[in-house]
Amino acid sequence: MRKEREMTNETTIKKYMPEVSRKEIEELKTTMKAASQKVIADNIEHMKKADPHRPEAMKYFDEISNLFGKRPEEIAAEKAKGKKVIGYMCLFAPTELIMAADAIPVRVNSGWYDTSKLGDRVVPVEVCPVIRSTIGAKMIELSPFLEQSDALISVLTCDGMTKLSEILSDYKTVWGMNVPRIKDSTQSLRFWNDEIKQMKTQIEQFTGNKITRKNLKEAIETSHRATKAFRRLQELRKGSPVIMGRDAMLVNQTYLWDDKKRWTEKTEALCDELEARAQRKDWVCPPDTPRVMITGTPMFWPDSWKLPTLVEESNPAGIIVADELCSGERILNDPVGVDEWSMDDMLNAIGERYLMASICPCFTSKDGNEDRINWLLNKVKEWKVQGVIYYVVRGCMLYAMEYTRVKKALDKINVPVYYLDTEYTREDVGQMKTRVEAFLEMLTARVDI
Amino acid sequence: MNVIGMDLGTQRVKAVLLKDGEVVSRGQALSGFDPIKAAEQAVDDALKQANLKLSDILYFVATGSAMAIAPYANSTISMMGADAKAGVFLFPKARTIIDVGAEEARAIKCGEKGVMVDFVVNERCAAGAGAFIEAMARALEVKLDDMGPLALKAERASPINASCVIFGESDVVSLIHRQESKPEIARAVFDAMADRISSMVHRLGVNPEVVLVGGVAKDLGFVASLNRKLDIKVSIPQYSDYAGALGAALTAAERAKVGSK
C-alpha cells in the first residue's frame, strides 16, 4: 500500500480547522439540527401537497430522507457489529469496492445552508458553498454520515474537492484519488485503473476484508439491479408526468446513503405504482405543464430543494422531468460493463465506468466536454424537455464556465436555457422566484405559439 | 374595453390605463412602506385623469417586484414579460429590450409579437442599476438629476470598477483624490454601468433595434454611455418609466379578450 495516498493527520495539530469549544459545537449543532429537521419536514410537506395522489411508496423515501433518523441509526447498529463506513464526496468513488469489502458507502457532501457560514471561518466566502458547508458540518459534527465515516474517499475533481480533502484530513483518514483531466487517452484510463486497483488494496487493508472475485461480482450485481430500478424510474418520467420532479429527485438522492438492496426494492415498488398510474392517466399535473430539466452544480438535500420547489410551485408552474446533476440522474445512470467476471476484468470495468461514463465538467478533451453536451441533448430530446435551468452556486467555477457552451448547443435546437446563480442562502428566494417565474412564463408562452 | 396595468416597482408604483388598445392615462405613486396603498393611489390617479371609475375597468394585470400583493389584480405577468410586450408595442421592429430600474437591470430578447424568448438579469449587486448612480451622486455631492448633464461635459473617460456599489464608491473616492474633474467622474460612473449592461446584452445577442426603458432611461448621461458601448443608438420611449405598467396593461387587454380571468 502506498502510504502517501493517505492524507491522515497523525499529529494533533490541525492544518486548517480552528479550535472550537465543545460548548459552542453542542450549541450550534443543536440549533442547526433543529433547523434542518424543520427544513426536511417542510420540504416533505410541500411535496405531499404538490401531489394529492402521491404514491404509497414515497412514504419510505420520506422516512429515509431524514438525515437524523432511521438510516444513521441503522448504520450505527452495523458499526457496533464491526462494519466500517467509508464516506465519499464525489461520484467517482468506486462504491462497488466498498460494498465488496463488506463496508458501507455513504456520500457526505453537505446540503446545509447554515453550516456554510461556519465554513467561512476556514476558507473565504468566494469558495464554493458546497465545500464551505461541508467544512462547517464537520466543524460542529452535524452530519451523522460524515461522523460515522471511518475513512473518506476524495476524488480530486475540482479545486474545492481537492482542498476539502486536506481540510477534512484534520479529523479523518482521507484517501485522495487522482483523476485524469483528459479522459480520452489510453494513458488516462491506464492511470485511473491503477488508482482503482490501489483503492482496492487500501480498502482491503483498512477493513481487514479481502475483496474476492465472488464478493466483487456480487457488489457489481447489486449495483446493476439498482441501476435497472433507477433507469426504470427515469424512463417513467419520459411520458406525461406521473411523479413530481422533486419526488423523483429525492428517490434518486437517497441512494447515496440508503441500503442499496432495500433502495432497489422500494424503487421498483414505486415504479410499479407509477406504471399503474400512467395506465389510469392519473397525471400529477396537467400534461401541458412546461417540462423542465435542471443541470449544473450538485443539489444536495435538504436546503438545496429551494430551486426544485420554486420551479414546481411557481405561477405558472413547471414540472422537472429530468436533471443532469451528479446528485441526481448521474448517480446510477451507467452500469459497470463486465464481459468476463475475472478480477482484472471487473476492476477494469469499474475503472472504465467511473472515468469514461462521467460527464463531469472537470474533464476536457480535444472536443472539450462533448460527452456532457451529447448527454444533455439526448435528455432534451428523449424526455421532451422544453426548457433547461442551468443552476450554479457562486464559486462553482467548472459548471459556471461550461454554461456558454451548453447554451450554444441548446440554442441550436431552439431550447431555452436560463442561467440561475445562487448561494447557500434562503435570502434570495424572492429574487430567484422572479426569475424562475419569468422563465416558466416564457416557456408557457412558447407552448401557446 | 378599459384595462389597467400596474407596475409595483421597488421605488414607485406606476399604472397605465388602456382603452381599446390606446393609452388614455398614467398614474404613479411612491412605493414607500405600503406598496398596496401606493398602487391604489396610482390607479386612482390614472382613473381620475381618464374620468373613469374602478368599476369601468374590465381587467387588471400586475407586474413588478411586489406584484404578488397587488390590489385589484386579476393576474400577473413577470417584469421581463411585461417589458418585452411594451418594447415591441412601442417599437415594432425592436427585438432587444433593456430595462434599467432602481435596483435591477435586465435585458430581454423577443420573438415576433413581443413574446420573450430569452432574458438575463444583472447579478445581485445594484452596480448595474439606478441605485448605483444615486450612491455615486452622493459621493460627488451633486444632485441625482445633475449627474447626466455633468457627464456629457466630460472630455475623456476614466475607468472605474462597477462590480459593486461599495467598491464603486471607493473607486470614485480615489478619482476624487486624484483630482479628476466632476464631469469625468460622472462619466466614469455611467461608463461603468453601461459596460456591465452591454455585456449582459451581448450575452443575448444584439438585434438592430434596441429599446431602453425603466427610470434610468431618462438619464441622458447613461444613455450616451450605453450608445457608445453598444455602438448603436438605442430607442427610448417618451414614458420609459411606464414600460412595465404598459406591458402589464397590454397583457390585461389580451387576457380580457380571451376572457381568461
What does this structure look like?
The complex is a heterodimer of chains A (449) and B (261). Chain A has 449 residues and is an alpha/beta fold. Chain A is built from 17 helices and nine strands. Chain A has two domains: 3-226, Rossmann fold (3-Layer(aba) Sandwich); 230-332 and 361-448, 3-Layer(aba) Sandwich (Rossmann fold). Helix content of chain A is 52%, strand content 10%. In chain A, the strands form two sheets. A five-stranded mixed sheet of chain A has the order 1-5-4-2-3, sandwiched between helices. Chain A has a four-stranded parallel sheet with strand order 7-6-8-9, sandwiched between helices. In chain A, strand 8, helix 16 and strand 9 form a beta-alpha-beta unit. The longest helix of chain A is centred in the N-terminal third of the chain and has 29 residues, at 22-50. Chain A is globular, with a radius of gyration of 21 Å. The mean pLDDT of chain A is 94. In chain B, 43% of the residues lie in helices and 20% in strands. The model of chain B has no long low-confidence stretch (mean pLDDT 90). Chain B is built from eight helices and nine strands. Chain B has two domains: 1-91 and 242-261, ATPase, nucleotide binding domain (Nucleotidyltransferase, domain 5, 2-Layer Sandwich); 94-236, ATPase, nucleotide binding domain (Nucleotidyltransferase, domain 5). Chain B is of the alpha/beta class. Chain B has helices at 35-50, 79-90, 130-140, 144-152, 165-177, 182-204, 220-230, 243-258, and strands at residues 2-8, 12-19, 22-30, 59-63, 75-76, 96-100, 105-110, 116-121, 210-213. In chain B, strands 3-2-1-4-5 form a five-stranded mixed sheet. In chain B, strand 1 (2-8) and strand 2 form a beta hairpin. The chains are: A alpha/beta (449), B alpha/beta (261). Chains A and B meet through strand 9 and helix 17 of A and helix 2 and strand 8 of B.
Largest interface: A-B, 18 and 17 residues
Structural class designation of chain A: alpha/beta
Q: What is the gyration radius of chain A calculated from CA atoms?
A: 21 Å
Mean pLDDT of chain B: 90
Number of domains of chain A: 2
CATH level-four homologous superfamily name of the largest domain in chain B: ATPase, nucleotide binding domain
Q: Tell me what portion of residues of chain A adopts beta-strand conformation.
A: 5-15%
